[in-house]
Design a protein that fits this description.
Number of helices: 23
Number of domains: 6
Distance between the termini: 45 Å
Helix content: 25-40%
Radius of gyration: 32 Å
Structural class: alpha+beta
CATH architecture of the largest domain: Sandwich
Strand order of the largest sheet: 5-4-8-2-1-11-14-13
Length: 894
């Protein structure tokens, strides 16, 4: 079956069977009964480092039921009561704990269909939760007062409050945050008032009229002050950072203006940015009315403020219209990234936006290397069953999703695309959608706006959404900044460094980032001269720009063997000053491979400073590095023309070929077999790949090639085996002379009873650097004085089982270690003792008919289920008022 057809079948299967499925990252019964309103108080206790909460939930029942099941993780439930004409306790229990998703709270409450229920839950968070972080005053920017903040995307919201922790459920709120009098409390809504309590604490009240999902409820408390940038746009941060932050973000009014011109009205009233302390784990988070951001964005040159534009555009894409489940995360981030580049193009020009697209393509290549090109995590709709979506966070949904939007735009036209998004945000506002909703509305809109059927039928939806790997259709992002970058790259790689610092410093931050990612992708092992240029000439160790510093340090860790002066200190400062997980991705993994002792030391010193998201990521990276050092297969071969007592270790692995080109050491490397150590001398660079033993090796076994001094990485764990072949019984021998005009030979596996092997003898000059390939499979060969003998099994050359007597041709190639072809020929295979199998097609046709009938029945049932679901969904969408604890209606849900 062709790959394209398979992808189309997957798409059809998803539409029929998965469109109505529950979000599998929540344990709640949100389809039965749904939160429609939330009110209450969060009390921030800095002494115990917990949040004490008293919350009222309003639910609306969609069916008749007997319980309300909510998500929770690491919460201490104090009481649950039903509110109404009279207050009464409700019994509750806990379901089975899922190691990833937490422990569901099962509240015993009978309800009829289409009823509203209000319950009160008193509870406390615990220190084990991953959402809330309490910072000592020394960890704040001003170092005078403690600080508190939460981060709940994607599934950490259940660590902050009992909830239906799924983006499919959205609700308005009226909430207060109670803090000590020296601090200011903030919530991701519109400020209403504050009041002083009897204990001299202050409660700040906020409301959110527009329904939002649980993960967008964000809290913060600290020594926070405000500076207005424009009407309804303000910057909040600690006093010492306020003027600097306001200056860096002074272009926000322009961003909002450009965004409204492209997408329509901004419905949230106020746009605020809160600059958090350095341990905030993301560069930015799009909490409604209160974007959280890291101080790493403040460089004094506005080089990273386009990330603020990204969070602002989430006010439409992600907050107003939300992905219904975490598999469709790209609907939030890919669309936002596309629209961000629309705003940036208006702000800094089309070339600037296209250079940002090229940065995105570099990130895609990076994660293809991390996950593998065939991994589900490189698709736009990955399989996340049994896995937390947080654990597979990457740039793929951002960048592949953005490229998909760019592709669609260039199919239907720029003007139609803009009109589509204006209509899309109005049509689906306050709702959550999945990829099928998006696709259906897109096609319907295009048909109504004169896009031809020919164009619509040619759109590659299935390939973009379900196909793993790189973008299925390349987009053209030629621009002046990339031309400048390519010139600098070429000169750097060729070692033409004189005056290159001037050209490098003229590049924009995006181009500098692509510079480092490109070198890393190409495995450009730095020469001493190149290393000195980056560190001492450009002085990149001085942490001039957080994004550039990140990729500079990654390159130094991956493509060099030692630190230059100032580099280790720079790395330590970088790791201990910030905790931005989306920037620091991969740094701890590379650092651990270089020096696991120092990496562990810095991590243990800093882990309490990190938010749980960053702490877990760093720990995971080091654990992975510990288990995944490169394992090379090398061959220990007898060579008659080597000096007596020496044996040559030939590298035959292709998987880690690039890594081998980076090792060039001759001391401190040993072959270890159990308790025996054999000293070797090695040259493993781009020209030669071998080691010579300095004493005889008599025992077969798995040897480990080690670098005890950790010069390059922990253990360059080369698996070594003795390459001397034992005697074999062969049924057929082919002698191949490279000078012969004959290019086709024959093997008969049926000539002898024990005919499992065949042998090919190459009459060529002996060469330890060649091997024989059958496609991408290497044959087992041994080299003696005059010939290269290769053993062939039936696994190497598979006989055509339907017609075993028929010849089947295989091409064998004699290649060198660089896979350059030296000689090739064909081998025909037969088995004279096997009879052809009987034709089974007749029976197969009957089976096929039965299968088609079953599949047809399943599809029919799925269609019926889909229609029933849509009818229920329409019924549930009827207009109803939402109570917000004060007897007033803040909005009507449509």
């Amino acid at each position: 079956m062709r790959k394209t057809n398979l992808i189309q079948l997957i798409f059809i299967f998803e539409i029929l069977f998965l469109v109505n499925s529950l979000d599998n990252h929540t344990l709640s019964n949100y389809k039965d009964i749904t939160i429609t309103n939330l009110s209450g108080i969060f009390e921030i206790d800095f002494n115990l480092k917990i949040v004490k909460s008293d919350l009222n939930y309003t639910f609306h029942s969609n069916v008749k039921g007997t319980n309300i099941t909510l998500d929770s993780r690491h919460l201490n439930i104090i009481s649950i009561k039903e509110l109404g004409e009279e207050t009464k306790e409700l019994k509750h229990s806990f379901g089975e704990t899922d190691k990833n998703l937490g422990t569901p709270i099962i509240i015993e409450k009978e309800y009829e269909e289409n009823k509203d229920i209000t319950i009160n839950i008193k509870y406390e968070t615990t220190k084990e939760g991953s959402s809330a972080q309490f910072l000592e005053k020394e960890q704040s920017i001003g170092k005078k007062h403690p600080f508190f903040f939460t981060q709940s995307e994607m599934t950490s919201g259940r660590d902050l409050l009992p909830s239906q922790d799924t983006p499919a459920v959205k609700f308005p709120f009226y909430l207060g945050i109670k803090v000590m009098s020296s601090l200011r409390g903030m919530i991701s809504g519109l400020y209403e008032r504050n009041e002083t309590n009897d204990d001299n604490s202050i409660t700040y009240y906020y409301y959110q009229k527009i329904p939002i999902p649980n993960y967008l409820i964000a809290l913060a408390a600290g020594d926070i002050v405000e500076k207005s940038v424009a009407e309804n746009i303000s910057v909040f941060t600690e006093p010492s950072y306020l003027d600097e932050a306001a200056k860096e973000f002074e272009d926000m009014p322009q961003f909002l203006k450009f965004a409204k011109e492209y997408m329509g009205d901004y419905e949230w009233g106020q746009y605020n940015v809160l600059v958090l302390p350095h341990s905030f784990p993301f560069s930015g988070m799009e909490n409604p009315c209160l974007t959280f951001c890291s101080p790493c964005l403040i460089n004094g040159d506005k080089s990273l403020v386009d990330l603020i534009a990204h969070e602002m555009i989430h006010s439409w894409s992600g907050n107003l219209v939300t992905n219904e489940n975490w598999r469709d995360f790209w609907l939030n981030e890919g669309i936002t990234k596309f629209l961000q580049r629309k705003v940036i193009a208006k702000w800094r020009g089309d070339s600037y936006a296209k250079m940002d697209y090229l940065l995105g393509l570099s990130y895609i290549k990076k994660y293809l290397g991390v996950f593998g090109e065939n991994s589900t995590y490189t698709t736009l709709r990955p399989d996340l069953d049994g896995k937390l979506p947080d654990a597979f966070y990457s740039n793929i949904p951002y960048e592949k999703g953005s490229n998909f939007m760019y592709y669609l735009e260039h199919q239907i036209g720029i003007e139609v695309t803009q009109k589509f998004f204006q209509s899309y945000f109005q049509h689906f506002k306050y709702k959550s959608v999945d990829v099928f909703d998006f696709k259906n509305y897109f096609i319907e809109f295009c048909k109504n706006n004169s896009v031809s059927d020919e164009i619509l039928n040619g759109l590659k939806w299935e390939e973009w959404i379900f196909q793993p790997g790189d973008c299925p259709v390349p987009n053209n992002f030629s621009n002046e900044y990339n031309d400048q970058l390519q010139s600098v790259l070429e000169k750097f790689i060729n070692g033409n460094l004189d005056g290159l610092d001037v050209e490098f410093n003229k590049m924009i931050t995006t181009a500098k980032t692509v510079f480092f990612l490109t070198l890393e992708e190409r495995n450009i092992f730095l020469t001493d001269k190149q290393h000195e240029f980056l560190t001492n000439t450009l002085k990149l160790y001085e942490n001039q720009n957080y994004l550039v510093t990140t990729h500079y340090l990654r390159l130094i860790l991956k493509e060099t063997t030692k630190f230059l002066p100032n580099e280790l200190e720079s790395l330590e400062k970088y790791l201990t000053s910030y905790g931005v997980s989306d920037f620091m991705d991969g740094v701890y993994r590379l650092f651990y491979k270089r020096d696991e002792v120092k990496a562990e030391e810095i991590f243990n010193k800093t882990k309490d400073f990190y938010h749980a998201i960053m702490r877990d990521m760093a720990r995971k990276e080091m654990d992975e590095a510990k288990e995944t050092f490169p394992i090379m297969t090398v061959d220990l071969e007898e060579k008659c023309f080597f000096p007596s007592g020496e044996k040559k270790i030939k590298i035959i692995s292709n998987e880690y070929k690039d890594n081998l080109q980076k090792v060039n050491v001759s001391e401190g490397i040993f072959l270890n077999l159990e308790d025996k150590t054999v000293k070797v001398e090695c040259v493993l660079d781009s020209k030669e790949k071998y080691c010579l033993t300095k004493e005889n090796i008599e025992n077969d076994g798995n040897y480990i090639l080690k670098v005890p001094e950790r010069i390059q990485r922990k253990d360059c764990a080369f698996k070594v085996h003795n390459g001397i072949n034992k005697a074999q019984v062969y049924t057929k021998e082919i002698k191949v002379d490279e000078n012969s005009t004959q290019k086709e030979y024959e093997i008969d596996f049926g000539e002898k009873e024990d005919g499992d092997n065949a042998k090919i003898t190459f009459v060529v000059e002996p060469d330890a650097n060649v091997h024989v390939m059958n496609g991408d499979k290497q044959l087992s060969c041994s080299l003696n004085n005059v010939t290269l003998d290769c053993k062939i099994t039936k696994d190497d050359l598979i006989v055509d089982e339907k017609n075993p007597k028929e010849y089947k041709s295989y091409e064998l190639k004699l290649v060198d270690l660089c896979n350059e072809e030296k000689y090739s020929f064909n081998v025909k295979v037969k088995n004279s003792k096997m009879e052809p199998k009987k034709d089974e097609d007749e029976g197969g046709i009957g089976i096929l008919i039965i299968i088609l009938i079953i599949v047809g029945a399943i599809i029919l049932l799925a269609i019926i289920g889909f229609l029933v679901h849509r009818a229920i969904k329409r019924k549930g969408a009827e207009t109803r008022d939402i109570d917000v604890n004060k007897g007033e209606t803040l909005m009507q849900q449509e």
